[in-house]
Write a structure and sequence with these properties.
mainly beta; globular; two-stranded antiparallel ribbon
C-alpha cells in the first residue's frame, strides 16, 4: 500500500529489498532473504538528490523461552522481536553519476523504538546514547557506500562497500581484518556487437561481516543473511555474456 506524490512516496510494503548496484547479487541488501514487512519512505525533491528509508520487522529465529510455553503436548514457541532501520542518501552531481551513502541498525529485545523511526539519523550514534555507550547492551549498526557511473557511453561502472566494523589499527596487522564486504564491477553493452553485453563483477566479504556475537542482532532474517548470498568469509568473480536477440527478450 503506497501513497505517492510527484516528489516522493510513503508506504507499507512486504517485499525483498535490493540496495547496491550489481548484476549478480547485491552485498548491502540482496533481496535473497525471505520477504519481510516494512515502512518505506522515498523522497526525490530535486534532480540531484534522492532519499530512501525503511523500518522493517525481521524474524529473529531465536526463541524467547520466558514467553514460550506448553499447551498440553504442544510447545508454543514465541520468537524474540527484531527490527531493521536503514536509510540511503543518493547525490547526483552529474547526469549518469550516482553517489550514495547510508547506514542501518538491527535492534531487538524491545518494542518498536521511536528513535529508529526518525528517517535521517546516524543510527550508530543514536544507539550509543540510548544504551549508555555499552556495546553489550547496544544494537548492531552498519555503514555503506555505493557509486554508480554511466557517464561513458556503453559502460556501467559500479562499486559498493558495506562496513560492519572498521578500525584504522587493523590495516597494518597481518592477522586482523575489518568486517567489510566490497563489490566492484562493470558492464559493457553494444560496444562492438549490437545487443550483446559483457559483465565482470568481483565480490569479497570478510569473516564475521554479517554475523554478530549477540544472536538476535545478526544482519539476517529467518536465518538468511540480508547481504551477499555467499555470506561472510567468501570471494567471488562473476563473468557473463548476454545477448538480446529481440527487444524485451533475454
Amino acid at each position: 500500500i503506497v501513497a505517492s506524490v510527484k516528489w516522493g512516496s510513503i508506504g507499507i510494503v512486504n517485499d525483498r529489498i535490493i540496495w547496491g548496484d550489481n548484476y549478480h547479487g547485491a552485498n548491502i541488501l540482496s533481496g535473497k532473504a525471505p520477504a519481510f514487512p516494512y515502512i518505506q519512505l522515498h523522497l526525490n525533491p530535486a534532480k540531484w538528490f534522492d532519499f530512501n528509508y525503511i523500518h522493517g520487522w525481521l524474524n529473529s529465529n531465536i526463541i524467547d523461552s520466558s514467553r514460550s510455553y506448553y499447551n498440553g503436548k504442544v510447545y508454543r514457541g514465541v520468537y524474540r522481536p527484531k527490527y531493521i532501520a536503514a536509510n540511503m542518501f543518493t547525490f547526483i552531481p552529474w547526469k549518469g553519476l550516482n553517489v550514495s551513502v547510508g547506514n542501518s541498525i538491527i535492534y531487538s529485545d524491545d518494542n518498536v523504538h521511536l528513535l529508529y523511526l526518525v528517517p535521517f539519523l546516524f543510527y550508530n550514534a543514536a544507539d550509543a546514547v540510548k544504551n549508555n555507550y555499552s556495546n553489550d547492551a547496544g544494537s548492531n549498526s552498519q555503514l555503506f557506500f555505493n557509486i554508480s557511473s554511466r557517464q561513458i557511453r556503453h559502460l556501467h561502472l559500479y562499486f559498493s562497500l558495506y562496513i560492519d566494523e572498521w578500525k584504522m589499527s587493523r590495516l597494518m596487522k597481518k592477522n586482523e581484518h575489518n568486517f567489510t564486504s566490497l563489490k566492484a564491477g562493470f558492464r559493457v553493452n553494444d560496444l562492438f556487437v549490437r545487443n550483446v553485453g559483457l559483465t565482470l563483477e568481483y565480490t569479497r566479504t570478510q569473516p564475521m561481516t554479517y554475523d554478530h556475537y549477540i544472536a538476535t542482532t545478526t544482519y539476517a532474517s529467518n536465518g538468511y543473511v540480508l547481504g551477499s548470498y555467499l555470506r561472510e568469509n567468501s570471494q567471488e568473480i562473476y563473468a557473463a555474456v548476454s545477448w538480446h536477440p529481440l527487444r524485451g527478450f533475454l
